[in-house]
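Hello forum,

I keep getting stuck at the same step: I have a sequence, I want structure tokens, and every attempt I make locally crashes halfway through. Rather than fight my setup again tonight, could one of you with a working pipeline run this one for me? It's a single chain of 208 residues.
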Amino acid sequence: MKHLLRIDASARQQDSVSKELGDEFERLWQLHSQGSVEVRDLSQHPVEQIQPTTIAGFYTPLDQMTAELQGATSLSDGLIEELQQADTLLITLPLYNFGIPASLKAWVDQIVRINRTFSYENGQFGGLVNCPRALVLLAYGAEGYGEGGPLAAFDFAKPYLEHLLKFIGIERVTTVTVEGTTGDETLTAQRLKEAKEELATLAKEWHS
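Reply #2:
Ran it on my machine without issues. Output:
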């Protein structure tokens, strides 16, 4: 059975554009795949920040792990298992201060782990995540972040996530964006409509 892992990073519980897009893609994904969905809302259930013992556990061989280190890495173990079971990863987020929300960064720090989601051998990195594809749904409050736009150089979220996900082994990363969400409501509604049409095309292609 196909399995979708959805990660929501917006602090908003209502009126979140990124979550609205996520809801639409989840609906379309279930319609076409009839698979299962697991949702992790990072604002409702924040992921703990990594601690010194977490880092120590990441770099300790299994046969040398103490009870303390096992406890410190147990959350990471669970989050990685969630990711490894997914056929599709969906991440929804707004741009906060030119980057990703802190809640999403905490999740990233728990799942990017040597010998679990990436390897380093003979001077080369390799991804170890089995999930073949990811969809990033990104909402911008302002306009001009697109390619060639006046704010394009200030977008540290889209390139970061695309690079990171490919680094851990997710080969196909697609990003759908909506800009100007704090501007004219009519224009925002039109952009949302266009983004949802793009999602409908993607969902159909991915399950054809």
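Residues 185-206 form the longest helix (22 residues). If your local run keeps crashing, start a new thread with the error log.
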